Amino acid sequence: MLRKFALAALSAYVLASATPIMAAEFPAAKDGLYVAKDFKFHTGQTHAEVKLAYKTVGEPTGEPVLILHGTAGSAGTMLTPGFGGELFGEGQPLDAKKYFIIIPDALGAGKSSKPSDALKAEFPQYNYDDMVDAQYRLVTEGLGIKHLRLVLGNSMGGMHAWVWGTRYPDMMDAIVPMASQPTAMSSRNWMMRRLMIETIKADPDYKGGNYTTQPKFARIANVFYGTGTNGGDLAYQRMAPTREAADKLVEARLAAPFTADANDFIYQWAASADYDPSAKLGAIKAHVLAINSADDERNPVATGLMVESMKKIANGKLFVIPASATTAGHGTTGGMAKLWAGELAAFLPTVPKR
Prior knowledge:
The protein is an alpha/beta fold. 34% of the residues lie in helices and 18% in strands.
């Protein structure tokens, strides 16, 4: 496994430096909305209707592929030139002429049901199992799809992909979880999330979630967490080699538009609290290509957790993108699909169809 790890890192370097796949145009995304009736949350609460918004690229006659976004994102964040532009175009790994690409807005995000719709802090507390169950109902009930060729997710979406593999092991041929690991939410990753949540709740304007104006601390908490757990050490040194440059970077981030609703934001980050698929990894039947970046602050390579986890998967490969001054830590996989698109292109044809 360690040799495979080293070879994957070496191949990532060759891929990044020699043969990047060029960004391309792809068919326009189409919007959809499915309403799941009597949705039951892990808490036992039942909601009469849960809205699940989604986008699709390609035609329903293509092989179905599920793409899952990160925390506080939406389906639209997977359609950028750096992500969709490297994957969905003609001749690319997930060519929309061959695949039917489904990208949901996760429960609690985008145009799917969320606290800010009306209930605020009375909205049912949801976790990653609930979010994946909602995606499952969208795919099977809303779109009538019985089997997926691939489930691919980034960051939170990567963790959702692991949950898909353990919760619905017969549903897909392949899983590509990125910027994630199939272990308990813990350590600095959870500590920073907890501090971010507590910071927002400590804002006098929060008022137990019944605010009339958005709490100002939310913007600061978001920038603090993003700076501490995303971006890459070498990249930050390149961007901010002096205190003055670092100050300008902080000021720019604090001045950037921030439109998130505080309750939505808290729910999205708190949903990860009980995430831990580690005990069920042996149940995964799909072939797995796990992709992480060597400078990922939230899933540090140094812990060895990924290498140990991959030993529990019958058909699994770990691919690690080497750190550099041009990678972005945790943000590498989501913003620079060109660094791993070649690995996906080589992996998918080797996966048998079930």
